[in-house]
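STRUCTURE:
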């Protein structure tokens, strides 16, 4: 059996990591003896022609796609095309969005054969066995499908109690060098589950409220494998990494015992840290912690069941500064009860903390308490266009504030930062020698990311790097082609391509009369 797993397009501006959940599913497929490939359209161009070519070459029996709400339409489009190219292919979708909207999806998209609901590893294992042995899939847990115009939902799958039994993510099926070229970290999990009740979150519905922990030594084995592959930045993607202080300190101690050298970041909550745990994390290479504080208004924090206080946020960020850990806070705009006054409360509080912070708009995803019990809250959802659920624009309103007021608030908050960057960029472009080292790094990092986004999104290495005739300096000729294509300074392109080649992410081989570039 052959399975093609789809990582659908996702905005590179959102700094995606290698798709962890999909790699876990791929690992399960491999362990079941299935031949599997990942069609990764996150860091490469998607087109119907490219998909058809990949399907023609691989000839999969099953095509499965993951998605979140904001890229659902991209994912289902790929599923529809796969079914069009080969009606005999079994199509599967999984992920947080489809897990909570499967009835609508099965009704609206007949090309989708099966939906995996919730945590997928055990379900995929059962599904592979059923399909391989011509068994009735109605005996597979936690799936939904259509039969005789009726939607069938099977018995719920129990959550995996021992996470160490799951095969490791099959990251070898990805082009990690593309992610390394962007400078984005690889994600790992050390646990699943979240005991909290935030009304805007899908997480606990997907992975349960009970915390399930992986063995620390096995986690570090996985990290060592990532480091050996060239990844030097790790993001711990647990919903709540600092839930268990003793375990976090053990993790940090064992990093030092193994003499592992890498930098890492984690998500946390302000009521689960203290100075001791943060100092241990910093000493083990943690460079950044992100807190979801959500609001600077205590009444709204109570409404959304965040279960934190503003004083806890003040204390946690103070400890982060003492430990030397870079601190970022996320605030949400458009929560139930929001008003111009509560937004000003949040802005004032965010400034008071004197840390990095950002605003995101509430997106009431399927499966969240806020969406399912919308009548209980001072909130109106204005659209079900899932492509707008990217947290970059207001799609809700309350009795006291309209979406355009929320948009204007966030725009004003970002204006000062944006103006400061534009002045820095102008200074750099006018005369780089007048810039400080930090200004040069900031502007060049921004320009580098923009360049890499374009190179990856449009497959420029594949399209322009195949028949390079300059055998003495092939990077120079490729740089000129990319520069002309993107209207970007050729020297800047050359320096960045040279860096990619020197670091081994981008490679080339010489034939008799020309050079071909390729990603490692």
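SEQUENCE:
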């Amino acid at each position: 059996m052959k399975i093609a797993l789809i990582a659908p397009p996702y905005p590179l501006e959102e700094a995606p990591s290698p798709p962890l959940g999909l790699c876990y599913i791929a690992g399960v497929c491999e362990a079941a003896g299935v031949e599997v490939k990942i069609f990764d359209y996150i860091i490469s161009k998607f087109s119907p022609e490219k998909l058809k070519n990949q399907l023609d070459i691989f000839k999969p029996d099953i095509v499965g796609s993951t998605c979140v709400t904001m890229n659902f339409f991209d994912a289902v489009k790929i599923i529809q095309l796969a079914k069009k190219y080969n009606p005999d292919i079994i199509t599967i979708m999984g992920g947080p969005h489809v897990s909570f909207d499967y009835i609508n999806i099965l009704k609206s998209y007949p090309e989708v054969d099966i939906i995996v609901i919730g945590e997928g590893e055990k379900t995929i294992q059962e599904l592979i066995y059923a399909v391989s042995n011509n068994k009735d899939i109605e005996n597979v847990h936690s799936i939904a499908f259509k039969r005789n115009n009726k939607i069938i939902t099977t018995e719920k799958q129990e959550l995996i109690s021992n996470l160490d039994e799951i095969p490791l993510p099959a990251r070898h099926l990805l082009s990690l060098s593309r992610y390394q070229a962007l400078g984005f970290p690889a994600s790992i999990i050390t646990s699943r589950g979240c005991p909290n009740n935030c009304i805007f979150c899908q997480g606990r519905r997907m992975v349960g409220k009970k915390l399930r922990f992986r063995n620390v030594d096995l986690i570090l084995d996985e990290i060592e494998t990532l480091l050996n592959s060239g990844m030097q930045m790790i993001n711990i993607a647990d919903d709540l990494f600092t839930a268990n202080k003793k375990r976090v300190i053990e993790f940090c101690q064992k990093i030092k015992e193994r003499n592992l050298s890498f930098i890492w970041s984690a998500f946390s909550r302000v009521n689960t840290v203290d100075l001791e745990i943060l100092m241990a994390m910093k000493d083990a290479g943690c460079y950044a912690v992100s807190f979801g504080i959500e609001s600077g208004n205590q009444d709204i924090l109570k409404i959304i069941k965040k279960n934190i206080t503003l004083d806890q946020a003040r204390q946690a960020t103070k400890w982060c500064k003492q430990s030397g850990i870079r601190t970022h806070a996320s605030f949400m705009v458009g929560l139930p009860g929001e008003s111009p006054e509560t937004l000003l409360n949040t802005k004032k509080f965010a400034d008071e903390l004197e840390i990095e912070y950002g605003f995101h708009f509430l997106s009431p995803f399927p499966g969240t308490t806020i969406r399912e019990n919308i009548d209980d809250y001072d909130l109106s959802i204005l659209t079900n266009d899932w492509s707008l659920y990217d947290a970059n624009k207001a799609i809700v309103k309350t009795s006291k504030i309209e979406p355009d007021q929320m948009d204007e608030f966030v725009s004003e908050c970002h204006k000062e930062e944006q103006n400061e960057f534009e002045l820095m960029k102008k200074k750099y472009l006018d005369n780089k020698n007048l810039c400080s080292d930090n200004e040069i790094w900031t502007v060049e990092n921004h320009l580098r990311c923009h360049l890499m986004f374009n190179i990856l999104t449009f497959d420029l290495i594949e399209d322009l790097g195949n028949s390079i005739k300059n055998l003495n300096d092939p990077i120079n000729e490729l740089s000129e082609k990319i520069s002309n294509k993107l209207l970007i300074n050729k020297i800047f392109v050359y320096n960045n391509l040279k860096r990619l080649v020197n670091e081994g992410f981008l490679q080339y081989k010489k034939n008799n009369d020309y050079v071909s570039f390729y990603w490692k």
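REMARK: Residues 2-153 form a domain with the Rossmann fold fold (CATH 3.40.50.280).
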